[in-house]
Amino acid sequence: MFDHRLQAEVADFVYREARLLDRRQWSAWLDLYAEDAVFWMPAPRMSGGYTENPELELNYVYIVGRAGLEARIVRIETNSSMASTPPPRTCHLVTGVTVEEANAQEIGVAASWQVVSFSEQRGQQLRSGSYEYRLRRTGDAFLIARKKILLLKHVVDGYFDVYSI
């Protein structure tokens, strides 16, 4: 049986993450992630598809643990990140948020995304793809246990960071 309430709650959660990134509300964004969260953007394979083992294969981004995400945000805030100096303005467009599986502990979610980034130095960049989330239930809320980002286009143009994918 399809749970419309769960679908709406999950979609609102995913949309909230996008808004927090666009508003650069880093602390609130980090609060969406579990302590053991994985933030992963696998690299494409020459033969098609994407790498499947982040520990043994190439990745565009692979951050294990919320502490790793916090360290990334410190680099952004202190201008220690070449990709984020100065940070571009972003607009996340997220659609097709779908609950693919759910049990008492976790929810598997898929969505499509497009992010427009703009800075005076680099101009406008457009990226798109799909998200795969693993959300963990925590009382009446969710935490992101895993976020997998799949780029539609395999060629990366310019810089990107956690807020622009």
Give the total of domains.
1
What is the top-level CATH class?
Alpha Beta
Largest sheet: 6 strands, mixed
Separation, N- and C-terminal Cα atoms: 33 Å
Shape: globular
Description:
The model has no long low-confidence stretch (mean pLDDT 92). With 165 residues, the protein is α+β, with helices and mostly antiparallel strands. It contains 3 helices and 6 strands, in the order H-H-E-E-H-E-E-E-E. It has a 6-stranded mixed beta sheet with strand order 2-1-6-5-4-3, covered by helices on one side. Helix content is 22%, strand content 43%. The chain has one domain (4-164): Nuclear Transport Factor 2, Chain: A. The chain is globular, with a radius of gyration of 16 Å. A hairpin with a 2-residue loop joins strand 5 and strand 6. The chain has helices at residues 4-22, 26-30, 66-77; strands at 33-42, 59-64, 89-102, 106-119, 123-138, 141-151. 24% of the residues are buried.
Produce the secondary structure layout.
Blueprint: H1 4-22, H2 26-30, E1 33-42, E2 59-64, H3 66-77, E3 89-102, E4 106-119, E5 123-138, E6 141-151
Parallel strand pairs: 1-6
Antiparallel strand pairs: 1-2, 3-4, 4-5, 5-6
Please give a handful of descriptors for the protein shown:
about 160 residues, alpha+beta, Nuclear Transport Factor 2, Chain: A
Give a brief rundown of this model.
The chain is an alpha+beta fold.
